[in-house]
Design a protein that fits this description.
The structure is a single chain. By secondary structure, this protein is mainly beta. The protein has one domain: Sandwich (Jelly Rolls). It is 10% helix and 28% strand. It is built from two helices and nine strands; from the N terminus they run E-E-E-E-E-H-H-E-E-E-E. The chain is elongated. It starts with 30 loop residues before the first strand and ends in a 5-residue tail after the last strand.
Length: 173
């Protein structure tokens, strides 16, 4: 114990420590991040030129996108795509989950009828974790992002998982 060398010490008064700030959590102006929980949905205003990135965080989670014009008419062409499925997941979620009443009211207020809407369905049960889909908005409107899922059966291990929506605004507010 006594044979250990004395540690080197800097001469003079103690120096103050630096303040470290986290840089990974800050976003640039015009960038937004929304997490849509599994079995949930989010309604977002979109503008021409906005870039959308959807990230399937844990994999295996289907996503339904319903794009609507400001007057409530649904049209996947707002995203530069063609609708490929009826919005069955959105309709089932809104009918089954009373916690989504605010979303239902928001859709009604904007004149969007999910029962007649066609959706752009992305990802599937075989999608790997971290899979991404990128879209560019072609016209102003509204975007409903849904991560539909049924209550998990314990023997099936088919839980609904979150989806991350990253928006880079063409004209930040």
């Amino acid at each position: 114990m006594l044979d250990l060398p004395y540690p080197s010490v800097l001469s003079g008064p103690p120096r103050p420590s630096r303040i470290l700030t986290p840089k990974g959590f800050s976003r640039h102006h015009g960038e937004e991040r929304q997490v849509v929980p599994g079995g949930g949905a989010a309604l977002v205003e979109i503008r021409t030129g906005d870039r959308l990135v959807l990230v399937n965080d844990e994999g295996g989670q289907p996503v339904e996108l319903v794009a609507a014009t400001p007057d409530g008419r649904t049209d996947a062409a707002l995203l530069g795509q063609v609708a490929n499925a009826p919005a069955e997941g959105v309709t089932a979620m809104l009918a089954a989950d009373p916690a989504l009443h605010r979303l239902r009211q928001g859709l009604e207020r904007r004149g969007i009828d999910p029962a007649t809407a066609r959706a752009l369905r992305l990802f599937g049960p075989d999608t790997v974790a971290g899979a991404r889909a990128e879209l560019v908005v072609q016209a102003d409107g509204w975007l409903l992002v849904a991560a539909p899922g049924l209550p998990m059966a314990p023997e099936a291990q088919d839980t609904a998982t979150p989806i991350t929506l990253l928006i880079t605004r063409a004209a930040p507010r």
